[in-house]
Amino acid sequence: MGGNMTDHIQIMDTTLRDGEQTRGISFALQEKLSIAKMLLGEVNVDRIEVASARVSRGELETVKAITKWAGGEGLLERVEVLSFVNRESIDWANEAGCRTTSILAKGSQKHCEHQLRKTPQQHFSDVAAVMDYASHNGIAVNVYLEDWSNGMKDSPQYVFDFVESLKATRLQRLLLPDTLGILAPLQLQNYLKEMARKIPLEKCDFHAHNDYGLATANSLIAAQEGIGGLHCTVNGLGERTGNAALAEVIAAVNDKAGRKCSADEAALQKISVLLERFSGKKIPSNKPIVGEDVFTQTAGIHADGDAKGNLYVNPLTAERFGRKREYALGKLSGRASLEQNLAALKMDLTPEQKKIILERVVMLGDKKETVTSEDLPFIIADVLNTPLEGRVKITECKISSSLKGQPFAQISIILNGKQISKSAQGNGCYDAFMNALVQAAKDAGVELPELVDYEVRIPPGGKTDAIVETTITWKCSGKQIVTTGIDSDQVMAAIKATEKMLNRMLCKGK
After folding, report:
1. What is the residue range of 455's domain?
2. 28-37, 381-390, 420-429, 441-450: lowest mean pLDDT where?
3. Which listed residue (20, 80, 146, 499) is catalytic?
4. Is residue 422 domain-shared with residue 503, that is, in the same domain?
């Protein structure tokens, strides 16, 4: 483990710069500003990198908006931009209101000689001159040694000579990127030990890429060796396979490195979901820390062990990250899984009733049908032949659309004991249905929840008569409700999911 190591390690989030290099992602001004505010204000990362200099006029206005907000909050020194080895980049950063920039220099001899077609000494002199220009403009300077990992592998003396040349400058931090994601943990450990003989590691950051799926492991090694800072992106966004994922790195460092991050773990899910919406890149359900399934136990034996003393709980507790532990229902469910879900619903049933309901749950799971905790009250009602109080029933729904006119929906619904008929237009068939439902709910004195997410799953193969599964996430009284509808028609599947939501909501008295 590296010497003179402080307990605290800086986290620099580069979602708005390196993360935006993900294919198909381009954040608008308000999106970037919202992300920056949440990263610094709620997640409390130490620094953010928000742009590359001279990309576009629109990017300049975006960075100006971020620095104006950050300046008003006393956070301007925590906002950084990437610049290049020229004065124009420094002028751009200055105009954007940034007081810290990171110059992208060449960290391998191959890049220096083949891409720049310069000698190492020429490049070192150019970098020093731009750094001096930045300092005279009141801008603090970091230096990225691009392709540093290959530099250490193929031309370590070049790297050491570069580091030596930087000692005569006003270098703030030296940034060591694994630009092509080639490093393995023990390899990185050896390189950092060599670097520590040339420059204090607490003055350095490590920037991981995930090409071998080792970005988190490499970041952990860097933290254990005494690196001063780590670079991450939300959800691991970035070019190719992406960067080190913010949530994973923070949890790993806090638990495994003997060091601590200042970031608020309870805010990681919120920023993850925000980036999922802004980027359009879905979070894998098994993504560590932030995935939908990571705090869900499926096997009945695990639920049984948890009930007998949290035997299957590890240090990554759901509560630590502002989340809730759940127990899946399906063919692998056991009595303990059912008990956990019944306890959450505050439902007390006889042993015989529980046995019948568990058999039904297992049977549905065996047919590959989705069974959520939100479905359980309806399974209970169906099995025990006891209709839910306040049950909602959509008795009729007619929807039409055409190339020239807006979609139109006409519905009849039993809601809170009232038979109500309404009609409305919308931007799509489901939107028309929801507009009619809003009118019906208003007549019945029912406030509808907010629709958060809408996902359609269609089996592969191109069959037009295939079963469609529509899963909708709702926000109701600060909590999320997830309901699923299945039909051969996509809109009807969504309407069935909506009917489930209404019944669930009214059953809970919300």
Report:
1. 393-507
2. 381-390
3. 146
4. yes
